[in-house]
Structure formats: C-alpha cells, structure tokens
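Lab notebook: predicted structure, single chain.

Context: the supervisor wants predicted structures on file for every construct in the current expression panel, including those that have not yet been purified. This is the next one on the list. No modifications to the sequence; it matches the entry in the shared construct table.
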Amino acid sequence: MRFLVWLFRAFIFFSLFAFSLHNQQPASVNWAFGYAWNAPMVIIVLAAFAAGTVFGVLAMTPSWWKHRRLARKHAPDAGNTQPMPMPPAAEEPRQPVIPDGV
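Prediction complete. Output recorded below exactly as produced.
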C-alpha cells in the first residue's frame, strides 16, 4: 500500500513538473489603472492558487473559531486539578489448585 501511495505522489510531482516546463512562456495580468504584471505563466498560475488558498483559509476562520468555542464549552472542565478516581479493580478468577501427584 505504501508503494502505491509513493507511486501516486511521484505521478503528481512529475505531472506538475511537466506542466511547469510546458508553460514557461511570458504572460501578463492586466490590473486597474493600466498596471500590468509580466511573468512566466506557471508563476501566475501558482500565485493564483496560493491566493485562492489564502482566501479559503481566511473565509473558514470564523467557522473554525465558532466550532472551537462550542467544543470548549461542551468539553469537560480542564481546570479540575483533582485526579479522577480509579474504578475498583476486578478480582482475577482463582485457578483451582491441582496437587502434583494427580
């Protein structure tokens, strides 16, 4: 199974590597007020992916905070410093004693 996972990872790596090699031609992104950014296409795609990832994380942050707050509210009291009482130990079943000569 580990071999298949590494094989899948290698496939993804070499696919992305081939993508970057085939998209090295210059491209431009036109912004407002006549500003343009010129860079290789693979860099522009990578920047767009990174910006989307950052936007997604920032969009999810309030929801994560809400769920953490609810989990902390419903969690047992973490400030309790007294040790939990141990349940009584179950007695081990006694083995019958068999004399050696029998």
